[in-house]
Amino acid sequence: MLIVLRLGHRLPRDERITTHVCLVARAFGADEIIYSGQKDKGLEKSVKKIVSDWGGNFKIGYTEDPVGLIKEFKEKDFYILHLTMYGFGMEEMKKEKGRNTLIIIGGGKVPSEVYGLADFNISITNQPHSEVAALAITLDRLFKGKELKLEFKGKKRIVPSARGKKLTEF
Amino acid sequence: MLIVLRLGHRLPRDERITTHVCLVARAFGADEIIYSGQKDKGLEKSVKKIVSDWGGNFKIGYTEDPVGLIKEFKEKDFYILHLTMYGFGMEEMKKEKGRNTLIIIGGGKVPSEVYGLADFNISITNQPHSEVAALAITLDRLFKGKELKLEFKGKKRIVPSARGKKLTEF
Question: ipTM of this predicted complex?
């Protein structure tokens, strides 16, 4: 089980970035995303529409108490990874094969407790860039590139082609 | 030389996504980004500020004629990669060691000519997700993970730490 927790969603500022975070989580093999901050029905609707059209069992949930939620996941023995530009690189991370994992991604201000609750504060480079990219690279390393080969048996499917666009609908 | 071309920037819709695209391009080792669509002085200013604070020689430019620009790069023998959800996976890509490369990323509607001009239409999964993530994974594969170790000697530098935030200013 791999769950992503997106902290501090802000409207309208984070509307598209959080959508991209959700879609990357789904396309790269996470089971669920939970977000905190401002409740956003449009976000939830568009993620559910993607799942309904493109397949898979990806879920989206919301929490008003992200720190409490992290504590609950710790009690359930989830491995807690926090993506931050201030942490160590992934190569320093202890491998936790087969363990359920919670990946935390910042948004607005990250509560300082999160740094302490995390088993590992990972940085994907120590440069400012994007939580979307940081999540993609983290999932890529955790799944060892196999996430790029996932098959989703959705109503909509792309037929890869050298040039142009081929989309089939079932 | 590795240049990223971001097509069809729309305001205000793409404001933050294009910023993330620029920051990923810089942090993951590209030399320059050129964007088309709506001219955005705020975007240019914030990218220049990041470079001034965090270091490196990354540049941002603008074009009104992206198709013409792609043709110019082809004439200069750049290897033209177009990221699209409709293409083949990277493992099918011909390796072009040491060749200058232009990576094209969509935005609004991508002109159909782009599919024909590209040497390779790559898809990072055939699922809907994010151009930010697609760019990050592509640069990661082209630079074989070395991009995560780049050093930028900027005024602002992070001192990686297990917990908390350490930032030094020179």
Answer: 0.96
